[in-house]
Amino acid sequence: MNTKYIFLTGGVVSSVGKGVTAAAIGRLLKERGFEVSIQKLDPYINVDPGTMSPYQHGEVYVLDDGAETDLDLGHYERFVDISLNKVCNVTTGQVYAEVISNERRGDYLGGTIQVIPHITNEIKRRIRMVAKTTGAEIVLVEVGGTVGDIEGLPFLEALRQMRGDLGKKNTFYIHVTWMPRIGATGELKTKPTQHSVRELRSIGITPDMIIARSDYPVDGELRDKIALFCDVDRRAVVTMVTAELLYEIPLLLEETRIAGYLLERLKLKPRQKPAWDFWEQLVDTMREEKPRVKIALVGKYVELHDAYMSVREATRHAALSLGVDDEILWIHSSDLEKGRGVELLREADGIIVPGGFGERGIEGKIQAARYARENKIPYLGLCLGMQVMVIEFARHVLNTDEVNSTEFDPATLHPVIDLMPDQRDLADMGGTMRLGLYPCQIQPGSQAAEAYQCDSINERHRHRFEFKNAYRSVLREAGMQFSGLSPDDRLVEIAEMDDHPFMLGTQFHPEFLSRPTRPHPLFVGFVKAVKESVQR
Ligand code: GLN
């Protein structure tokens, strides 16, 4: 079968849920028996988001192969339940870096290198790589930003060319727009959608489908109007009101019957009937009144919840599977240092300290770990959260505050967390951490073993620092167990406390492998302990 391509562009404004829409459409197609993959094209010039501040970009999502990617890839993996690879996130930076290095090697034999065809060809090559590397039959390609952005033009030109290369039955263009509501009359406006479609047309792309998003219900007349003014089949105009629940979106899209339309236009026949029972049940459970547990998330980017997208979702997956509602108490770690937010911490039934970099707010996180240890509050530490838990316990055991990670105090007396040896002489910051999937052996009899129910696991990593083995025996004797180790025993991957309902930290990021259909065992273990502590 030829690979089929569905391209998603955005119009009017960004942040209207294009990524989630792409992910949900991916699910609709998977439910009909197709192998689906999803790619994100990001027009910014960074090679990847790995070096960007979470304030700019939200979370950096890590794949099995160690690619540091846009958080939309997290939506894709969670909704479709697939594992993506590094070709699934392309940036302008990557495309130019490749073309320029080809040019330096002399590959272009004296030619003048131009946006068309050299840059566009490289973009198309990367789009085609998705099917080659994942075996997908249908590839969804989402372009970041909105039509009209200067930096998006080469990507849109590449998409335009792909219809010429592959024909109408192998390509399909979806334009996702936004309908604002004018306060005075309460009317929803289609004009921005019309303008945006016109802009897309001027680039040579005629959308085959319009998904018009809004915060308010839409009547049929507006759909007719969009269809007429934008010259799109009425069946292919979909209006999507902002959903109350994220995981309801595939169900809402199913009701619009777009999957049938898409397949018809791509000349495909569904291979099976979709089975939505699981998703319906998930949404029903989300709607039910459930006992509530409060989980403090102590981080330094808490103003921007997107910076902790996967942690938030993984916690929710676990809570749903255990029939509880998880309310997140967002606590700024710097606030704790100033004595603020302490009441919130006291209110919490469980504490998560997620990943992070740099010194700011570290002492606040250490305070949160101490509070969890002393008061036997369930604690889950993710990467930095594990390092903080170790620093805190070592300060207690060694009875000195001169314990730290060399990331925060290079001259500390007790560097319990230290730079990994292979990280020492690196000059480049981008893409040089210990990244991606690595195996880990679980020690029998531990809380980790109890949660995982197996002795060998693979998890995704993103770090430069590690536990210093010189401190293993002193901390072990004092009550910290190293329950997950690299197969050569050299690297501590999981640390946990004896005599505590649940206090466990991982050097890896379990949140990236949690799916609504398969909540992550460690998150389940943590939320279970939280639930039990509330019931007690
Ligand atoms: N800054 C720490 C390190 O590099 C933790 C990284 C993280 O939390 N992802 O090891």
Description:
Helix content is 38%, strand content 22%. By secondary structure, it is of the alpha/beta class. It has two domains: 273 residues, P-loop containing nucleotide triphosphate hydrolases (Rossmann fold), CATH 3.40.50; 247 residues, Rossmann fold (3-Layer(aba) Sandwich). The strands form five sheets. The protein has a nine-stranded mixed beta sheet with strand order 13-12-14-15-23-22-21-18-19, sandwiched between helices. A seven-stranded parallel beta sheet has the order 5-2-6-1-7-10-11, with helices on both faces. It has a three-stranded mixed beta sheet with strand order 16-17-20, covered by helices on one side. A hairpin with a 5-residue loop joins strand 3 and strand 4. Helix 5 packs across helix 6 and helix 12 crosses helix 19. The radius of gyration is 25 Å and the shape is globular. The termini are far apart. The model has no long low-confidence stretch (mean pLDDT 94). Glutamine (GLN) binds next to strand 19.
